[in-house]
Design a protein that fits this description.
The structure is a single chain. By secondary structure, this protein is α/β, with parallel strands linked by helices. The protein has 2 domains: 168 residues, Thiolase/Chalcone synthase (Peroxisomal Thiolase, Chain A, domain 1, 3-Layer(aba) Sandwich), CATH 3.40.47.10; 145 residues, Thiolase/Chalcone synthase (Peroxisomal Thiolase, Chain A, domain 1), CATH 3.40.47. It has 10 helices and 13 strands. The strands form 4 sheets. It has a 5-stranded mixed β-sheet with strand order 1-7-6-4-5, with helices on both faces. The longest helix has 23 residues. The protein is globular and about 50 Å long. The structure holds acetyl coenzyme *A. Acetyl coenzyme *A binds next to helix 2, helix 6 and helix 7.
Length: 317
Amino acid sequence: MSIQILGTGAYVPERILTNDDLSRLVDTSDEWITQRVGVKERHVSFDESAAEMGAKAAQRALEAAGITADQLDLIVGATVSADAVCPSVAALVQREIGASCPAFDVNSACSGFLFALDTAAAFVARGGIRYALVLGAERLSRIVDWTDRSTCVIFGDGSGAFVISPGENYLASHLHTQGSDSVLSIPLGKGNSPFYGKEEQPIAIRMSGQETFKFAVKQIVSDLKLIAEQAGVTPEQFDYIVPHQANLRIIDLAARRLGIPIEKFVVNLDRFGNTSSASVPISFDELARSGKLKKGDLIAMCAFGGGLSSAASLIRW
Ligand code: ACO
């Protein structure tokens, strides 16, 4: 298909929040979070917006790609935790890095980065785009309900980015949406409208953990099988899998159902938690910079989240 990855970058804010720190905020423990989720610590932003973090990841991806911001023809961003509904994170990143190309966001929650990547790939396939920046940037700490122990222990802040260009290394992709607001949602406030007929809810991530868990495992398994089939390979032939970093038990169960050793899955949720749309590009960037990758390696990426949505893509390195 239409693209290759020229460079990747990631950024997380400096401040670390440990499970012990969290146990002073809500009734939880390091033991519960480690066993049930797998997170040990996460980074939280005190003063950087999602767009500011996104710009830092973007700079690193541009450096890795060996190009400058003025060479970009397109920026596609993904986020659920921007400071504003508009301007988009992509537009603010454009200003911050000094680019001048069209820039917009897609919203598909934790699957957002892979939806954004596929969108950018379609633009590249249409022609006329030499370099595109795709990024996921999240300041989830801004919208988490810090009194709800079932969600606040999961999430973290950060950003990740790819620079892509025309190429032949994007072997397969699959996007899935199952419209629902009952399992996972982030409702907005009503402003000061006198014409609002529903009960107002404060902004917060609302999630049925077990329903999300079941959806996640089912979709990782079926989405990875689908992209393998599209590319004419089997999931066992994937060299690495970069999954959305939501819960170690989700990754473990999916790996067992697919018959793929867990060692092939990139896991860093113990250090970063769930950074929603930033989680796949942050993890991919760690893999890309680890020195482990060999030319020709097959790398699958998969994600799931609000929408409900899920996605998977296959790259040849
Ligand atoms: N510390 C201690 N106890 C807790 C905590 C906590 N942080 N959170 C919940 N519990 C308690 C519950 O109150 C419950 O207690 P009870 O039995 O006395 O009622 C018990 O632990 C079990 O609760 P469950 O909700 O059944 O716990 P579960 O094992 O399902 O773990 C979790 C919850 C971690 C949320 C899990 O369901 C999960 O990871 N789900 C998937 C979430 C996900 O992947 N989200 C990604 C998408 S996010 C997006 O798109 C923005």
